[in-house]
Structure formats: structure tokens, C-alpha cells
Amino acid sequence: xxxxxxxxxxxxxxxxxxxxxxxxxxxxxxxxxxxxxxxxxxxxxxxxxxxxxxxxxxxxxxxxxxxxxxxxxxxxxxxxxxxxxxxxxxxxxxxxxxxxxxxxxxxxxxxxxxxxxxxxxxxxxxxxxxxxxxxxxxxxxxxxxxxxxxxxxxxxxxxxxxxxxxxxxxxxxxxxxxxxxxxxxxxxxxxxxxxxxxxxxxxxxxxxxxxxxxxxxxxxxxxxx
Amino acid sequence: xxxxxxxxxxxxxxxxxxxxxxxxxxxxxxxxxxxxxxxxxxxxxxxxxxxxxxxxxxxxxxxxxxxxxxxxxxxxxxxxxxxxxxxxxxxxxxxxxxxxxxxxxxxxxxxxxxxxxxxxxxxxxxxxxxxxxxxxxxxxxxxxxxxxxxxxxxxxxxxxxxxxxxxxxxxxxxxxxxxxxxxxxxxxxxxxxxxxxxxxxxxxxxxxxxxxxxxxxxxxxxxxxxxxxxxxxxxxxxxxxxxxxxxxxxxxxxxxxxxxxxxxxxxxxxxxxxxxxxxxxxxxxxxxxxxxxxxxxxxxxxxxxx
Lengths: 225, 306
Description:
A: Rossmann fold; B: Alpha-Beta Plaits
């Protein structure tokens, strides 16, 4: 699903965020990407979503060499990757339904499909009853569920969750992890970026640990700092 | 395809109404610019009308000496009436001049003058020729031909040069009005461009989160850019619509005053705009849309990274 080969990212003048890292993630895997602040996790997420390009090396996502991807093909790549962020990135002046529908609308999906897909997704994340509420009327966990529903609108094969539980209490965080696990069960590859040890240790999954821009460890099991 | 078109319009309208006051101020300033530009177009049309009226009234009247022989006058007339520059030539004999004078005096009730003329044995009036040229530029050639004529000695007076100087003055004024008008239009085009640029820039800034999310979920660049471009066009169309709604009632109100003030000058301010509606407003709309697309495009290119 993801092939990262000898990727480096240097920010001017000489900050090396990633140093020659190589990672391969198979389709359907659930992978934790862990590390302290400044380890290079967010940089890696930005490279995977083509928000930035690596200084050197090659990244392949779903068979696409995204390091050579033209600007006009980037939207097509992003429709194949769902991304969930710590701060949810929901539009405050739109209801949950509209937030999820918006992701389909801006990509030119027909109205009929929007009306079919959005309620289905809200049902999957357990927000069917609150579809017409605004983000401010919901708890953090509910907002994150809505963000996950939005990330799933294009039925992505890959879902990147960048610190999705960072602003949530442990019980709510567990709910989000359970939801992502269920999504993984139906075949979606999950890359779960976190620095929360408890979350990682909740599941026995593959853990890739970054430290100072390099891969420190890559194994299934517990995460020790 | 239809869904995309519908959504581009929907997003443009949503932004327009969400930032209502910003949109309102933008439209207000563009409308002021349009109104000013239209008054310059009106001034230009008015100076054209003045000039045309004067040109139409222009002619050369040649008065012959009282003592001139009728045969010489006829020979002179025969010589110049074939000039290609002449559109109309009217000969007024001494008797015609006397009859016309008496008639107008009677109409005006000055019968004593008529009686006095009747008592006179001789006709004190001169014969004359009134020449109208094909165009205003033909008068100098006609005047030159008159000067060169062997019969020029029987001419007592020519009335043209005064009008020529008036025409020259008005032509100079007209060209100045046109120059100023073009400069003013250029100036306002720049102002409108800057206002649109700033409005779109503020829009991009205030909606940066929304644009970020659009990019995140895979919106194509054009789905982000087109509503902004359309919004710029919307400002132009609405502003021009308001300008027309302001202009026509205002001109209807001014119409009686302008015709009264410029007595004898056939300038219909309302007709000037209604007769040329498509041309005047079509050009303005095209120019405004062009300026808007340019300004929006620059702002999008500069501030919206997609």
C-alpha cells in the first residue's frame, strides 16, 4: 500500500526532518507510527498526502509514485487517502451532514450519491441522530467521529489518522481506536500516528517508531519510550 | 457536469452572502466607479452632439456688393456651384432678400419698416449665396476656390471664419474630454481591480480553513478557484445592474433641465443611453468582467496555494 524508499526531507537552511527512511506497509495493515515531538511523524504524514515533496527518495501510495505526481493529479491522490487530524478540521458553520457531504460535493459527486452515502457513513460512525447538529454542539469524540466519516467518503484504501486522540480523554480515545479498528477490519489500511503509549499498547499491532528523523524500530508489539 | 456547475455557483453565492458587508462595500465602490465612467461617456456624447449641431449649422454666406452686376453674380455662382465639396448652394437675389425681410418684419409687427422700404425707390439689400459643404473639412477648400475666383472683387463679405474658430475650439474641448475620459476610465479600472484583488484576498484569508479542507478531501483546483472567479464576475454584474438602476431614473430627472438649459441643442440624455444601451453597457460589462477575472486571478495565484 505504501512504499517509502530512502526518503529524506530537509527544511531550509539545514533542518533534517527525515533521514533516509524506508518503510513498507501492506494493504489492510494497521500500523502505529510513533515518536516524540519532532521525530518526523507530521513531516511523514505531509509527504504521504502530497502536501510536501521529499528532498530525496521515493514514495509510492497505492501504486502511485507520488514523488513524481503532477500538481493536477494531487486531488485524485487525496481522494484515495482519508486523513483525520487531531483538531478535526470541521467547518464550524456547517452541520455534520453538510461537513461530510461537502467532501463529496467539492469532488463533483452527484447529488443522488451524496444523499445515499452521507447517511450511511454517519450511521457507521454512530452519528446518525446528530447529523443536523453543528460541530460546536458536539463533544470532541463526536467531532472526531464526524471527521472520520468525512475521511471515508471516497471509500479510501488508506486512512491516515494524525494524532486523532490527542485532544480526547482516554474513554473517548478508546472509542475512536475501536472505530478505526472496525474500519481496518473491512480492509482499509490504517496509519495511526500518535505519541500516546497507552493507545498503542491497547492493540497488538505493528509499531514503527521514529526518532530524530530515522526509523528506530519497526515491530509488532508494545511501545516503550 | 451539471452538478459541478451548480456547485460552483452555489459556493460563489454562499461566499457572497456569508461575507455580505464585504460584498456590499465592494459593490458600492465598483458602482461609484461605473457611475463616474458613465458620466464621462455622457460628457463625451454631449460634446459630440454640440459639435454635430454646430457643424450642421455651419455654412458660408457670401454677400455681394450692392453695386454688383447681376450677370457677374450669376457667372460667379455658375463657377463655384460645380465644386465637388458643395452639398447645397442657395442663391438669394436682391428681390428675394427684400421679400424675406418684409415678410419677417410683418410677422414681427414692424410694419413701419415695411412702409419705409416701400417708399424707397431702390432696394438697399444685397444679393447673397449660402453654401453648405458636404463635411466640415470641405469649407477651407471652398473658401480657397472663392478667393481665387476672378469675380471675388464683387464679394463684399463672407461669414465663415468665426464659426470655424468655434468649431476648432469645440473640437479641442471634445478631444480633451475624450482624453480625460479615457484616463478616468483607466484610473477607475485600476481602482476596481485593486478592490476586487483585496476582496478576494480577504475572502481567501477568512476562508483559508475551508480551502485547506477542500484540498484535503481532494477538491480539484478549479472547484476551489472557479467560485472565487465567479464571485468577482458577480460583483461586476451586480454593480453594473445597480448603475443602470441609478442612471436611468437620474437621467429622466435631468432630461427636462438639460433640454431647457441647452436651448436649441437636440441632445436627449436619456435617448443617448437607451439608443446605445447594448454597446455602452456591453463594453463596460466586458471590461469589468475582464478586470475582475484579472484581479481575482492574481489574488488567487498569489494567496491561494492549491
